[in-house]
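Supplementary material to the annual report.
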Amino acid sequence: MRSVAVVGFAQAPNVRRTTGTANGVEMLVPIAHELYAQTGLEKRDIGFFCSGSSDYIAGRAFSFVMAVDAIGAWPPINESHVEMDAAWALYEAWVKLQTGEIDTALVYGFGKSSGSDLRRVLSLQLDPYYLAPLWPDSVSLAALQCRLGLDAGKWGEKDMAEVVARSRADARSNPNAQLSGDPTADDLLGEPYLADPLRRHDCAPITDGAAGVVLVAGERANEIRDTPAWITGFEHRIDAQNLGARDLTTAPSASSAAVAAGVDGASVAELHAPFSHQELILREAMGLGGEVRINPSGGPLCANPMFAAGLIRIGEAARRVWDGDAAKVVAHATSGPCLQQNLVCVMEAG
Amino acid sequence: MAGAGNGAVDKVLAAVVGTGQTKHTTKRDDVSIAGLCREAADRALDDAGMTWTDIDAVVIGKAPDLFEGVMMPELSMAEALGAVGKPLLRVHTAGSVGGSTAIVATSLVQAGIHQRVLTLAFEKQSESNAMWALSIPMPFSMPVHAGAGGYFAPHVRSYIRRSGAPTHVGAMVAAKDRRNGAKNPLAHLHQPDITVEKVQESMMLWDPIRFDETCPSSDGACAMVLVDENTADAHVSAGKGPAAWIHATAMRTEPTMFAGRDQVNPLAGREAAKALWEQAGITDPLEEIDVAEIYVPFSWFEPMWLENLGFVPEGDGWKLTESGETDLGGKLPINVSGGVLSSNPIGASGMIRFAEAAKQILGRCGEYQVEGARKALGHAYGGGSQFFAMWVVAADKPGV
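Predicted assembly:
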């Protein structure tokens, strides 16, 4: 494969509510400026733009159309969009780089969840004939998933609380995090349930946010970063949609993507687990042992902008390579209810 | 591997070896959304002589999720799309999405990542009312409340004024596309007896666009099987059928509105076409392209896009149309499948253009087959004439 590296990453401050327009594309303007400043590239240097967002989050059709205004699509640009987390937009851009048609790509994702009742909106991702009419919401479905694992003895509430305590503590050094602090696991276990067995802190916060990443092929990456984050494995898979027909305490698509991408030997992993128990599922499914540092950014439990949070995992993991903290990192993104669809991106230093 | 060579990368050649469509119609109340997609996909696999297990990855596209009221419907169709345990990508680039989706699938093959990709696009418009899904009032935005026709009518008026085109040209396009649609068993509208006069007598909807110059609202899906060179060669030598080789793809985007934007002849479309012809090694598209499937949802977009695509100089598109050269048997047959004017499942319409271009190369167009077609254009556009996707497919491998 052609050598492609992550060389730029910027994100909006992750907050509970922004005051911009319904789809929040204003958040993208400073991100694009920051990416150009970081990389020394200009808009005309970018061979391909690709984004991820959702019309249902924005509550309107064609919400991504406004984003091309924010990014400044004039003169006209080579551009595409996925109705998925922008981690998959990054995948599309990486594929385009592999064809040799382009040498650079700018990828962005945005989600303004404050305009609606997120957990009910996400119900509309379910099968429209058999499941969506019952309106099971995303938090309730995750709670059922969690209960299955608890009953099977796969994890305990203490394990979940420890995930949250570690995430909040790590987020203290992330200026863009929405939540941070230093609660102990015991403190957290004293909190009431939101959707038994999930407590509020077991669930990712509702976030308005956006992010962008720059990809460059070949030698040029070495001109931009001393230690570019070279993509050495990039895979994604999906599992069946019927929640009653698959074992929700595992994530087969995450397992096979991790094996195919080659995660062995990574020292840091940024996992897109919007619920604390899902981090435990993913660690096991992806074969990440105790030596792997999980979510040093604080992860999605401290900031979860829909349709950008997966892309942020890739940016945060790449940053560890740039900074020399890790020689090999793993980034993961998820989509759909109960970890249905999973993407794994492995990056390495030179 | 780090930094090892920048280099020029040799693209893997990609080809279409199978296409499948549903019978486009107003309302498919006999199938679910998944069932509609499955029907097109099964037909494409049959056409390619393949089964579901042959497929490495699935790329699906559709226009806004609000059209069916299902958020990211591909998630709940993972099984119906044969995607479980495989990569599934969902593209959304407005009306051009069917074309963009095919291009993303092409890239997966050209990049050498997959050998056999199923790509599919659909819309089940009867699940909702597309006009209202397109007319949600937004803060700080002028409400159109008139669907796409109300949006594009001023562009058409402007084209007529700028080009001096006689007003019957639009009706000619509509009569031609509907007559040709009658030769396509899968087309939604079958009007073999339609005439220019009948079109001109139909109700005025958005001046100067009349009822018969307007695309229908359809339920439908379209799928294609794209494969790499080795698979295509094996397919051909096994006698399973020919291959339509992909010579070029292009996508371009520009913003919806700003002072000075030319909405009649958008720069993004001109630049996409320029890149496309260059990549395909085509210097005179009018001479070198044998048949074109162009996204014409309202009749006047045929002459407008003829100019935008560079087939003729600006202002001359209507002359080619008026001369009859864009009909079956003419110099550049356009939309002989009936086009968007005869079938419009919005999210699939772009892919249908791409697939009909491929079908012409594969020789599978029956009554509307262009004899000896060896090079074909598929074109799609979307949004406010701002998203463009196009490809060139041919009977010979690139460079032959």
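Residues 1-6 of chain B have pLDDT under 50 and may be disordered.
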